[in-house]
Specification:
By secondary structure, this protein is of the alpha+beta class. It has eleven helices and ten strands. It has two domains: about 5-160, Sandwich (Jelly Rolls); about 170-280, Homeodomain-like (Arc Repressor Mutant, subunit A, Orthogonal Bundle). The strands form three sheets. Strands 2-9-4-7-10 form a five-stranded antiparallel β-sheet. A three-stranded antiparallel β-sheet has the order 6-5-8, with no helix packed on it. A two-stranded parallel sheet has the order 1-3. Helix 3 runs antiparallel to helix 4 (about 140-160) and helix 5 (about 170-190) packs across helix 7.
Amino acid sequence: MPFLKEEFHFDGPISFTMYETDARQIMIHCHDCLELNYILSGNGHYIIENKSYPIAAGDIFLINNFEHHMAVHNGALSVLVFVFDTGFIWDTPEEYDYVKPFFERNRHFSNKVLQDSPSYPLIRDSLLRLQKEYIEQQDGWPLLIKAYLMVALGEFYRYYQRLDALETDSSVAIAYGRIRSVVEYIHEHFDEPLTLGQLADHTMISKNYLSAVFSNTMKLSLFDYIEQVRVNHARWLLQTTEESVLDIAQKSGFHSSSYFNRVFKKIMGIAPNQYRKSIT
């Protein structure tokens, strides 16, 4: 089944955004960021990788940047979505535990938080405070967004620790740390020609090792990831500008319109012009 890796554009002063949606999802997707969901109303099923969770009002879900997911519902589902960049919270080794539930999991792990757990009301209240701060954006709101998010993530950590649902080693953290600089480099230079040698030089590790670690960590090959980033940027330009397809291709890192059309259709299932028509 085809899937989409979405790239978020954070327009504000922090790498965090929040929105409410009731839109039906037509494609399994994942993000380049971390995601928390709070179900406001409705029901359905949440497909996250090879698991399916029933959805009810009040449910809370935690989803990492590798997990393919899609909410299946009849159109009556309303979801509060919180999305943030890993680096917004995890900048030092000491801060890794805040994001550990996204990466270090064992067989007891569930993306869905049990509503009858002691941690549930604390997590829910932190998410609702995040919603209030993000909507009102009074003086100092970026500070409080980070503070409430860290409280919520601390409660997630405590919840999963009590369930014995986290791994005890830090292999994922170490692997992600090794490729983090190349992920950031790709997002800063996707509109330029990129080669494996260039990226390996940037990370100061061998080409073969970079390819292997990147694929194992991101669940996507290095150049498939670059194509996803470029297509996501092209989608954003198709949605927000009236520039020609050729100009958009060049601004998104594609050296020709034919190559752009081929890659865009491979990932999205339709050509760029058709995609633009479908959203207008």
